[in-house]
Write a structure and sequence with these properties.
With about 140 residues, this protein is α+β, with helices and mostly antiparallel strands. The protein has a single domain, classed as Alpha-D-Glucose-1,6-Bisphosphate, Chain A, domain 4, CATH 3.30.530. It contains 3 helices and 7 strands, in the order βααββββββα. Helix 1 packs across helix 2. It is globular, with a radius of gyration of 14 Å.
Length: about 140
Amino acid sequence: MVAIEHLQQIKASPAKVYEALTTAEGLAAVWTTKLKVAAEVGFVNEFNWGEDYVTQMQVLELRAGEKVLWECMESDPEWVGTFICFKISSEKEGVTTLLLKHYNWQEVTDYYRSCNYHWAMFLLSLKQYLEEGKGNPYTGV
């Protein structure tokens, strides 16, 4: 099994990082503007990428200011059965460290490599949203 891992430092509190990862407002500002999400264990978040392409992530674990864990239920076949974990560290000198781990990939493929890049862009968008007030979500354009 293979994993994608990225580390991002953000000038925001752990509570603000957690809020951005668990609310429609936050995720729409950084990932995609078309979504249905709830900060509720068991809920299946839906992220719409246009033309009937929807990614469904079941919320498996929520620890306010510490951790968010999703399992991919529907998406590209290589994503189904993978897990996305966001670990939020304690704030130090105004900076929170976020570890994103997308794991349980079956193998390294071109799609895996592309997703690795796109997760880095997601984290940059999250950082921009929390530090500057505006992320760079997918808008279908």
